[in-house]
Amino acid sequence: MAIIKPFRGLRYNQDIIKDCSAVVTPPYDVISPSEQERYYQNHPNNIIRLDLGKEFLEDTEADNRYTRASEYLEDWMKAGILKQEDIPSIYMYDQEFSYGDKHYIRRGFIALVKLEPFDKGTIYPHEQTLPGPKADRLKLMQSCKANLSSIFALFPDEDNAADNYLHSITPSKPEIDFVDDSGVTNKLWVIKEKQKIDTLVALMKEKALFIADGHHRYETSLVYKEQRHKENGGQNGELPSDYVMMVCVSMNNPGLQIFPFHRAVRLIKDFNPDRILHSLKEFFAVEHLDNSSGIDTIVQKLNSDAKTHSFVMYLGERDKYYLLRLNDERVLETIFTNNHPEWKHLDAGILHSIVINRILGIDSGEAGLKDYIKYVKNESEVVSLVQSGDFQLAFILRPTLIEQVREIALARKVMPPKSTYFYPKLITGVVINKMN
Questions:
Q1: Fewer Cβ in 10 A, N or C end of the chain?
Q2: Is 418 a domain residue?
Q3: Could you give the C-alpha distances from 60 to 36, 89, 191, in angstroms and in order?
Q4: Residue 135's domain spans which residues?
Q5: What is the pLDDT of residue 317?
Q6: pLDDT by residue (tens digit) across 306-345?
Q7: Is the domain of 180 the same as that of 312?
Q8: Is the pLDDT of residue 5 over 90?
Q9: Is there a domain that residue 412 lies in?
């Protein structure tokens, strides 16, 4: 069961910071070096200095981006730039955005959630993690003793009881209201009334949590928790490090949107378009698509395709698009017998196992993929990467379904890398959890 509790969040003092959009950023792992520099220039108190500080050649063990982050954090707290809530609270968090011709509001709440290992309990991952990002986040957590950004989690809410309750307790005027770089409106309300908090805690008590974004930070928090308990002499009793800050959103929330990550592929050994197309026909019906109407028409055709498993391949050398439809699902039982059998229901799994691994000859391990594949959210961008000559093929996918995320997670399995892109990304700097 999900054990949640309120906390005294650390927030930018709006008497000093008049424009919150100047001091917040997207998650650290989607920020490019040029964007990092821009956030540095935006404001001297931008959260980038804490969450993704610059590295310098003269850095040492005693003076580096992690120690500087801790110093900034302490200095900003002393100066009143960051101010702690007077009493433990839970925070309502809205992100409003438009996509196509529709307007969405994704509502969740920010609270502390008690940490549980992934191999037991009711907190489930769905993505693989890598040691590099976890080592980076651990050093930052050890130095700052804080959750600088929230993990994004989803909870089942079949009768909409929790989601309806969130709407019923939210005041009309938010404490924070700003538009971020991507055009998303972010709003935050502070809920301090104990009765309202207790009701929400009770509503969440029997629910599982499925991590949407933040797998590396969650696993880092587990390691940090163990370290703190050892430092405390292994004594029983709760420590602040037993909890991690999360944004929790109902799986039924109408603003919950999952977009696909598309793939651009390079360094294909002995690249031969005719051979690739011939090999594909063993598993797929291959249909050449007319691209005279542009990429939007291609994507529309893919998304409306009735076939259970299909995706589009762009062959830059011929400037041609091909719709690939799986011929016979029975072949999946053979291919996936010993290799990620849970992937056979996922377009991304079929793409990785049959096309990328078997036909293109690229190692399917995540570490082996990083030199060969670039994951891109925008269809036009992934095509342009191939047109530039830096990549040889592009694959355009349909979104993964929330039901598929839940099914894989409940089985305690993981999806292929970059199978989901939950939009919009949570903003870093809205609330900080200082583990005092």
A1: C
A2: no
A3: 21, 38, 42
A4: 4-257+423-434
A5: 87
A6: 778 999 999 998 899 999 999 988 888 877 766 677 888 8
A7: no
A8: yes
A9: no
Is the separation of the CB atoms in 256 and 106 below 8 Å?
yes
> What's the pLDDT score for residue 48?
98
Contact call for residues 322 and 313 (beta carbons, < 8 A):
yes
Q: Which conformational region is residue 210 in: left (phi greater than 0), alpha (psi within -120 to 50 degrees), or beta? A: beta
Closest by CA position to 214, among listed 7, 2, 420 = 420
Q: Are 28 and 139 in contact (CB under 8 A)?
A: no
Q: Compute the CA torsion angle 424, 107, 244, 365 (nearest 10 deg).
A: -40
Determine the 3-state secondary structure of 335 from DSSP: helix
Report pLDDT digits (tens) over 247-278.
999 999 999 999 999 999 999 999 999 999 99
Same domain, 251 and 271: no
Distance CA 403, CA 173 (A): 34
Q: What was the pLDDT predicted at 371? A: 86
Task: Give 24-45 as a DSSP string.
Answer: -BS-GGG--HHHHHHHHHH-TT
Is residue 98 within 8 Å of 424, Cβ to Cβ?
Answer: no
- E-assigned strand segments in 85-141: 90-99, 102-114, 123-124
How much is the mean pLDDT over the chain? 93
- Unique residue bearing structure tokens 């196992």: 353
The helix-helix angle for 379-387 and 295-303 (nearest 10°) equals 120
DSSP 1: -
Q: 7 φ, ψ to 5°?
A: -155, 160
Backbone region of residue 415 per phi and psi (left: phi > 0; alpha: psi in -120 to 50; beta: other values): beta
Tell me the two tokens of residue 335: 């291919």
Instruction: Name the residue with tokens 């993964």.
Output: 400
Q: Does residue 413 form part of some domain?
A: no
> Based on the domain organization, do 29 and 116 belong to the same domain?
yes
pLDDT for the residue numbered 365: 58
320-326 and 393-396 as β-strands: parallel, antiparallel, unpaired? unpaired
Number of domains making up the chain: 2
Long-range own/partner contacts, residues 166-172 (CB < 8 A, 24 or more apart): 166/92, 166/107, 166/108, 166/109, 166/200, 166/250, 167/107, 169/92, 169/193, 169/196, 169/200, 170/92, 170/107
User: pTM value?
Assistant: 0.91
pLDDT band for 390, please (50, 70, 90 cuts): very high
Q: Which residues pair with 84 in a beta bridge?
A: 10
Q: What is the spatial distance between Cα 338 and Cα 26, in angstroms, rounded to a whole number?
A: 38
Q: Residue with structure tokens 């969130």?
A: 166
Mean local confidence (pLDDT), 219-224? 97
